[in-house]
Amino acid sequence: MDELPGALGTSASLALRLGQAIFSTASLLFMCLDIEFYSYTAFCFLVTIMGLVIPWSLTLALVDAYSVFFRRPSRQPGVMSVIFVGDWVLSFLSLAAACSTASVADILITSNSFCHAKLCSRYQLSAAMTFLSWFLSVASSLFNLWLVPSL
Amino acid sequence: MDELPGALGTSASLALRLGQAIFSTASLLFMCLDIEFYSYTAFCFLVTIMGLVIPWSLTLALVDAYSVFFRRPSRQPGVMSVIFVGDWVLSFLSLAAACSTASVADILITSNSFCHAKLCSRYQLSAAMTFLSWFLSVASSLFNLWLVPSL
Description:
Two copies of one chain form a homodimer. The first copy, chain A, contains four helices and no strands. By secondary structure, the first copy, chain A, is an all-alpha fold. Chain A has one domain. In chain A, helix 1 (11-32) runs antiparallel to helix 2. Chain A binds chain B through residues 40-42, 92, 95-97, 99-104, 106-108, 110-111, 114, 149, and chain B through 40-42, 92, 95-97, 99-104, 106-108, 110-111, 114, 149.
């Protein structure tokens, strides 16, 4: 099997997964720390999705690290399909969360009365981190997509 | 080549494309007709994306109708790749537009002072139509995805 960079078990995939975990954690921290986020549906949605993305990315990062350092890449078709479908679903969900958060932050800034400047910039930062996490998630699912037909 | 239902040039694909065009047009009409939508960024984004989705779906519906009724399915790899990438990009964009519109409509309803009940329900209907259009768009791009490796 040719080694496609970015597919499961390579060091590029490990970097992508770690990036996803870091950006998702940053997004969660920007949103949750000392802010009452639960008054808006979009923010609760973001926190829920980030709570799903972080363990998913960390688990796959562990699998990648094991493959990279102990040289045992095992790619059963069933496992690859589950990872591929999970990646796509989570990337759609994190895009949805990022867009909702961004538009709610935008409307809060426009209407000007709902949040202080510091709060709103934290909402925006959280949305930006979610967009970055979504981008990396799409990248790793695209890399895995090229691997699926060869199984 | 085996005829996968839903791939380009089949009657199922024609139905999917027509559904996308109908739902996108409904979403655009719910949003634009007699409403000043341009005061919110998310609504302008929705109108822009629907203005892209409608001609795209109608063009591909015409291609499908030609293939169905005149029996000449021509699938060059280049054309299929362009259609596949276009479908994915448009489905991501329409998901983003649907989520933004839905969350803005939700926050307008919660804050209660920005829109009348009738207006807000129209925003919600527009978001729902966009979600349906996104769903059909993902379906047709998934069907085309299974066709890409066989080219």
